[in-house]
Amino acid sequence: SLKTLIPHTDGEKLSKAAILQQTAEYIFSLEQEKTRLLQQNTQLKRFIQEFSGSSPKRRRAEDKDEGIGSPDIWEDEKAEDLRREMIELRQQLDKERSVRMMLEEQVRSLEAHMYPEKLKVIAQQVQLQQQQEQVRLLHQEKLEREQQIRTQVSVRTPPRPT
After folding, report:
1. Cα–Cα distance measured from residue 134 to residue 125, given in angstroms and rounded to the nearest whole number
2. pTM tops 0.90
3. Where is this region: Disordered (predicted)?
4. Which helix (H) or strand (E) is 28 found in, with range?
5. I need a labelling partner for 136 at 20 to 30 A (CA). Which of 13, 51, 84, 151 fits?
6. How far is the C-alpha of 75 from the C-alpha of 81, rounded, in Å?
7. What is the DSSP letter of 160?
8. How far apart are CA 22 and CA 4, in angstroms?
9. pLDDT, tens digit, for every residue of 33-52?
């Protein structure tokens, strides 16, 4: 299922390792695209602020009006175009973010399915360590009881005359 989500040529045979590698590369490219879109979004926000606020640049542009069209109408149209483009970019970013999260979850799931033997080995190692710890504790308790018995016997038994 992960193979169907990554860009590749149809009919191309891919091993599980190749699918995971391409998935990692695709996620990396999505992150780069996200960074690029965020930078572009920031630039567009600055651009909108320049044209929507009463900045010195805007006042100079209005002062230089030579009667060719209305600068307010042109700026309003351009601002509206920018708003639409920002909405589209935000939607695209949200879509890519959700795809990335879905891909990351699928990678985790695939890793769990691909390496169940490794998980079994780790579980067996943990179980063995727990058993060894139990044996060590039992042995330590036995030694402590023997020491207590020796101490009690030596206290009760008077020394032999020599």
Report:
1. 14
2. no
3. 49-77
4. helix 16-52
5. 151
6. 10
7. P
8. 11
9. 999 999 999 888 888 888 77
